[in-house]
User: Fold this.
Amino acid sequence: MLKRIPANWILLAPGIVILLLAFVFPLGRLFIYSFYKTTSSGAIEPAFVLDQYIKFFTDTYYLEMLWRSVYVGVIVSAICLVLGYFLAYGIARTKPKYRIPLLMLIALPLLTSAVIRNFGWIIILSKKGILNEILIKLNIIHQPMELMYTVSGVIIALVHVMLPYMVLVLYAVIDGMDLNLEKAASNLGANKFKVWWYVTLPISKPGIVAGTLLVFSITLSYFITPSLVGGSQVKLMATEIEDQTIQLLNWPFASAMGVILLITMLIVTSLYKKALQSKYEGANT
Amino acid sequence: MKNFKIVNFVNVFIYIFILAPLLVVIISSFNTAEYLVFPPQGFTFDWYHEVISKGRYTQPFWNSIKLAVVTTMIALPVGTMIAYAISRYKSRFNDVLQSFFLSPLVIPTLLLGIGLLILVSNLGVQMYFPRLLLAHVVIVIPYVVRTMIAGFAGMDKSIEQASIILGASPIKTFFLVTVPLARPALLASGFLSLVVSFDELIIALFLTGPGFNTLPMTIYSDVQFNLSTSLAAISSLIIFGTVLLGLLAVLLMGVNKKS
Amino acid sequence: MTELQLKDIYKKFGSKVVVNKLNLTVESGEMLCLLGPSGCGKSTTLSMIAGMQTPTSGSIMLEDKELTKVAPHKRDVGLVFQNYALFPHLSVFDNVAFGLRRHGVPKSEIGDRVRASLASVQLAEFEDRFPAQLSGGQQQRVALARTLVLKPKLVLFDEPLSNLDAKLRQALGIEIRLLQKEYKFTGVFVTHDQEEAMLLGDRIAVMNGGNIVQLGTPKEVYKKPVDPFVANFIGESNLLPIANTDLGTSSETMEITILGGHKIKVIANDNNSNPSKVMIRPESIEVLVDKDIDSEKYNYLTGNVAYINYTGTSYLIGIKVEGIEKEFLVRIQNMTEDLHFSDEEAITVKWKIKDTLIY
Assistant:
């Protein structure tokens, strides 16, 4: 006799099958491929060698690219944090009836296609784009700025893509905060900035950590913006991986780059968490 | 109060920053010139007319719609079942299961794309639609699971118990009580699923080929090589469509709350 | 006739024992109250009878039928919830009809039965409303109608009154008793409120630590609590620690010295030769007005008034007695004349020796 399968496993079964088949298994293949060999003619040979990783780590071209990706991720996270904090704080402290419309306004870009949003940025940032036209008309600059196909342009457009994530995470924390704490602090004689620095900011720390981690993780492997705004002039890990896969058909190398990207993401995020944690514990003792 | 005003002042600029790219696309779409130039030369609906009547975006549009709808039809029930199992049954694996089903959100889509490309070419799966469908279901499931778990958590368990005590079997209870009560979460999940699937680009870049284009792919390639005003028009249509769909979902959820 | 029987019910969550070898028999047509503080296992016991949880071991019998093996939706047991648990998406009519439809009652019959049931809880006019449009009391009456329309033999009540305010609680409690007479069901009523238990229960089972500590009529439980826990849980009590027991003062009574050196006489009790606490109900105590001392019949205690509260129906006096940490409570009811005590004033109180209980 078959033992009766518990109801919850019956409910979970289709999901588990789909994820094993189309998620775990492909990622496993990717990992295995990263140890395959690419012959000089470009053919792929099953093997278990570190060729792809050695190729990556012995070439400054790729190392610089990895560094550039991490750098862009950090800068974007930092800018998003500042802008996102302003927005989240503003929404949390505004009248309740305005909160939902404002949050929807911020979430709206999140729901519209990222390709279209980057399209908008191209219209704004290009050499004869809106920004340059306006600034020249206002006599602020005389030569059009080069923003398209530069790291700065990529960062501007990426901040726009990532900002909603940051705001939503920060808002959840700031909104859940007890307003009386701020009132109590100002009753005790602290000025607005001091109240924010000593009371609001420390309490919103979990949101700051979660938000920056989220933004950094997504940015590091984000493809659309570097591809459209950066083009071939700003090579980042994500665009190079796509190139290696689609154009050069060097799947083992693309796989190895993917694994390196994932490991970089894990290392940076855990170092970041650790750094913040030790600071916190230090303050406690 | 003074600092508060500074915050608001800064925020106005940030809101402009947030809305600017979308507004720019929409404004450009009414330009009379064929290519994108600023300031606009005149006002016309011609490009919308062209986009709707002529073929360039029609087939990709329907491909994307079909993909989004079928993805939702699979991911919504599968994800709801997962969320229900995790929320309503005690199991020591629940935490692990939850992380497992949310992990496609954490792992970059880029990696999943390469992995799937390797896998389907090893297996020799040629048809583009099923390839994409499977990948989309995987990408969408975490959104559904997360939304539905939150939905079930906010639901009073004793209402379902009451149904069982009154003689409804667990399956009857699920359809007569749980599903109607979870309607707001189901609507939100369905909306997210449609939008995420409709907008997905990376998977399509990796897994599809000649003969099957999705709308984001077509737009992506036109943004690179063919910046025309009709591109702005189709983009604006997508923006309007997303906003309308979102408002519709919010409206339906609101109706449910009142009764 | 025995309706419901729990035999050696044992329930563990992980390593925590929640219900420990509980035995209980509920007679047909009676209302039994499970009374105890939160975490005593009363709600778990109830949900095992309803089938929401399965006992780790032991058996539940309903009219000599083993209930533990029956799926919850086939048990024909009614359950009334603390938070009403009405279906918010269904009208009052559909809420009440829900169970009938699941039991395959013919359509022609459903309308009449629903209306009759709603009429019996005075909600005949409300069948088209939705739960959100009703008050808490009305919602709970709909829940009662929804349960009783199925005419279950056994109805379980899971603190159904505790979300209501005090006045409504009493009114609905009485209504439940009347409905029981009308529908003739057997009831198990879980509560943490002793007044509710006294009002509703034919018998009360006081629970603590996963088991029943005392089972009896409200009067028995109140008059003769088996231990300080029950005494404290049901009604008010003065518990005085004993310093020294002097045995054999007389054959019928023995004299006890409590902390502070006060001597108290109690009825000799062979079962408890080494008691540690004396218990006196505040309402069995009187204030000594004349100087008549009858130490054969009464115990006396002198202290200073710490406070005196007037509640409308009674006075509550707290007395500071030397050597005793907590104020000694005296509740005086049915006063014909006003009591006048100022703070710190010396006061002597008396109570019958037979009203003095020892543990």
User: Anything to note?
Assistant: Chain C touches chain B through 30 residues (CB under 8 Å). Chain C has two domains: 4-229, 236-358. The mean pLDDT of chain C is 89. The CA atoms of residues 185 and 213 of chain C lie 26 Å apart.
